[in-house]
Amino acid sequence: MTTITEIIGRVNTQLVDPMMVRWPLAELCDYYNDAVRAVILARPDAGASLETLNCVPGARQTLPDGAIQLLDVI
């Protein structure tokens, strides 16, 4: 699997900015995170994880921190 470091390195090569002056690392990471977020919003199963949820009394439950959507209950 390709790592974030490899992706940023390839992008940096295409941008012809080896010292990361015009496109700082933090900015490239922001763009990467934006892209990942867009993919997950379009295809929630692309970033799915298996989590354990301790239910509380009542019909309304709270998703764990970082969760966007409940996909399935097993």
Structural summary, described in words:
The chain is an all-alpha fold and 74 residues long. It has helices at residues 4-15, 25-42. It has a domain at 4-47. The protein has 2 helices and no strands. The longest helix has 18 residues, at 25-42. It is elongated. The two termini are 28 Å apart.
Give a quick summary of the entry.
By secondary structure, the chain is an all-alpha fold. The protein has helices at residues 4-15, 25-42.
Question: Gap between N and C termini, in Å?
Answer: 28 Å
Q: What order do the SSEs take from the amino end to the carboxyl end, as H and E? A: HH
Report the strand count: 0
Whole-angstrom Rg: 18 Å
- Chain-averaged pLDDT: 91
Residue share in helix: 40-55%
Strand content: under 5%
How would a textbook summarize the main sheet? none
Given helix and strand content, the structural type is: mainly alpha
Which regions have little confidence, pLDDT < 50, spanning 5+ residues?
Answer: none
Number of helices: 2
Shape descriptor reads: elongated
Topology:
Elements: H1 4-15, H2 25-42
Helix pairs in contact: 1-2
Features:
mainly alpha; 74 residues
